[in-house]
Amino acid sequence: MIDAENLCKLIRKIPPDTGRDFLTRHFEIELPELDSKQNLTQQRRQLCDALEALSIKARQHIEQAAEGIMLLSDAAGQDALASLCTKHLTDESKSTISAITSPCLRSLWFYENAHRLFVDALNARQADIYRQSQTCYSGFVAPPNLEIHKDPDALAEFHRNIAKHLECAEKDVAIQLFCRLRTDAKSHDDTVLYQISIHYNLSPESIDCVQESELIAHDIIRAAATHVTYEPESGHLDVLSKERSEREALAGIVADTLLGAPFDGSKIPLKQYSYQCLAAPFVFDIADEPIHSVKVTELGFEGSDGGTSLTKLRQRDKDSIHAIAKSLYASEFRFTEHHLNYAKITIKLRKEGRGRPRSITIILRGDNQCNIKTKREQDRALCDRLLIKWHLVREISDDDQSIAA
Length: 405
What we know:
- It is a single chain.
- This protein is of the alpha+beta class.
- It has three domains: about 5-125, no CATH class; about 130-270, no CATH class; about 270-405, no CATH class.
- Helix content is about 40%, strand content about 25%.
- Helix 1 crosses helix 4 (about 55-70), helix 7 (about 105-115) packs across helix 8 and helix 10 runs antiparallel to helix 11 (about 245-260).
């Protein structure tokens, strides 16, 4: 299922009968009975074949749930669940959770039996830490509106080129190509996004372990991962890799082999955040948005003689941060007389369905730093759209950067 990456992972990691039971009960779909004479691989293939027969819209709905379950199945997700488990679960539920050894099944248990805690943990985790980390990210520009070459010859050539670049044997490199949807910040519509996941073996490592009361050495092989995404609508090539020096070369291999397009290494224009307007009372336009209220809860500014100061406001405070600052500093104090270098905007979302109302924050630092990449996909798209709507961001082209230099 090329458009359901997380659903594929979920089916691979849980028993087929558990997966079938979960899908039929929660998504009102009909799946064939599993053949008990088949092995686990064959039963999983039977499930995948039945799911591929569904419409893309129906499968995307299941994929969203599977994405949440998989996000809470890794170390960061399990930590988020564990912190809630100790506070909110009964002793009986804790005992049940302790007996579940599989992280994926543990995450699935929360989805089915403690969905409120599941959602809270997902919000606390704020998406995949590695994939959203700015220290792992570089963005490049390729021609827009191109089709990814998915034929076997193109994928085989791509596999060979990646293995050659990484100086690995082809058998030590695994390539996965997925197609998924992402909410566009401006149009609110879903846009297609192609993701190429590259997994490759690192050099063997020797570790010590004890066997039968003797210390012996064992060689282990770890796999590293790199992800490249292509968004046809914008032409953006995003590379997520811990190796900064590798990113441009990987983007070039994707462009040359899978897109068949020229690649010159041009980077996605930087975004400059202009929030000096928050130094005065600011009216946030929230018309037609799923928002209950917005307020500036923190402002940082530079002192005239050096140093910085930070003013904080609690969201439940009735006064504005400007009134709080006057009570803290002096009645004649004005943020407009200082240069802002930090701002925190707290957005209270409307309650949806049976879920609880929640808040998200936008943190702006300096001219080019913003925390929205650390958020879940839906929240990221909302924050991106709001910053544009409130005129707090603009793109810096290569020409602008050259002039500034």
